[in-house]
Amino acid sequence: MSELLHPHIKLPEGSIEKQTTTLNLGPTHPATHGVMQNIIELDGERIVSTEQTIGYIHRAFEKLSERRPLYQITTLTDRLNYCSSPINNMGWHITCEKLLGVKTPKRVDYLRVVIMELARISDHLICNSIVGVDSGAYTGFLYVMQQRELIYEIYEEICGSRLTTNIGRIGGFERNFNNTAFEKLDKFLKEFPKVWKEFEDLFTRNRIFMDRLKGTGAISAERALSYGFTGPNLRATGVDYDVRVHTPYSSYEDFDFTVPVGNTGDNYDRFLVRGEEVWQSLHIIEQAKRKLDEFKGADAEVYHADAPAYYLPEKKDVYTKMEALIWHFKIVMGETDIPKGEVYQSVEGANGELGFYLISDGGRTPYRLHFRRPCFIYYQAYPELTKGAMLSDAIMTMSSLNLIAGEMDA
Amino acid sequence: MSLTNEIIKARLVEKFGEQLTEWAEPYGMLSFTAPKDTNLKVMQFLFDDETLQFRFLTDLTAVHYPERIGEELAVVYHLHNLADNIRLRFKVFANIQQPDVFTTSKLYESANWMERETYDFFGINFIGHPNLIRILNVDEMDYFPMRKEFPLEDQTRIDKDDEMFGRGGTFGYGIEKELVGGTLAEDQKHNEGSEIL
Prior knowledge:
heterodimer; A: mainly alpha; 3-stranded antiparallel β-sheet; 18 helices; 6 strands; 10% strand; B: alpha/beta; Beta Polymerase, domain 2; 2 domains; two-stranded parallel sheet; 7 strands; globular
């Protein structure tokens, strides 16, 4: 047999004749954008089958959460989808607030919306520009990286950190947004649309780019739902499911925006849906900004709910006021009991529905906390998306799915 | 048309009668418990029924309740009806000695990995699962880490000191060092020297 196929190759005695090639993509391959492995069976350049291995950076977040008071779990959520940590942080705070029955003031909700939408923009920036990088167009990536920097500067102004933000508290924010933060936000809102327009001009109707993306990695709406797709990946198939609209949280019902959908569910539609979502996010931020400007005087100083048992008081109060000192001590030492309850809360993460399933038995730490990580669930579809495709298309599919290893492995 | 928790409950009770128990509505989400053997039937019914149409598996996980003797492990399903936008949660309980639960991966592709994860951390044996192997932990692991019998290390323990984390103290390596080579006194002397340096 082997002689017929390759008359010039003389295989050693006892060799196994194999018709396909096995290729290990990852765990540390530039195309995987994260620590994950794909064992790909190739027939020529066509993919016969794919098997994914994940878990390389599993950090036992769910187990760790069982011994941490609520406020210490925020730092764990940072490290799920680290391209948009603020959304994870807010999602966690909102979950806690739901369990504790804390009602946040409108101003806090709007501030949160601003932060979450900025995070969504920065996440989509990365994803869409990485699709560019993987198709051989590096310029766009570098160009929007500069804009992400502007977003990170806003985070920095608010919480002091950039990537793993640990932003906000249960009940609101640790401090009011300062003027510099708002100035930087204005600067971003002014500069960014031009850049994003230019980015889209570079890519959206680019013949080469379209040829690479159109028709590759496609999935039908029905299959996508069966695979548990959420977020832009689901919307690219034509299903208009968005947690912000279906189960509004943080006063999203006050905002006017459209949910962009695609129809073929391929890489190109995913790219377009993300691109349009960036415009919608900008639109939401502008509305939120206007709403925030309406708060005057004392109302403009509101940045947290009245929940002393769970909200860490301001440092200067801790030094000067007895009450604040007591609460600070109790919270930091983890001595505040959490009411009994079972709650599921989800937010629209940048790559899908990020859910928190929290069970409290009345202790000081969660009895059980489970994260519904969107990309863990939809990455299962990868073999189906790439079967029969070219290897280079499979790489595009991987980047357009917006897989974040940190989120996948928890 | 809007589906409410009452309608869902009435429909389910009509079909399954007394089998479904522990009805509750924590934070507005209808939740109940089903007998272990009926999980597939309940899910299929929720999927097929024209009124209910719960056709999206949002989440699948497990919880360990050591105090519920004989039914320690609970598998929790979160389902979503996207058309009417309503969610529900149901649990099935299994004995920890023989945690066999039917797989739902035939109904939902997404259940595949979620069940693998649940097996990985709780040891639930999903009957009929196409590939029930560990997913996040190493293959060699021989226990199920999310069970409550494996507590995280207690932060208040006093029988551990910094020495065990390689900081301060004598940099001793515990008993092994004493047995392998040199005496403890020699080690201490050596370390004192290095401290000066």
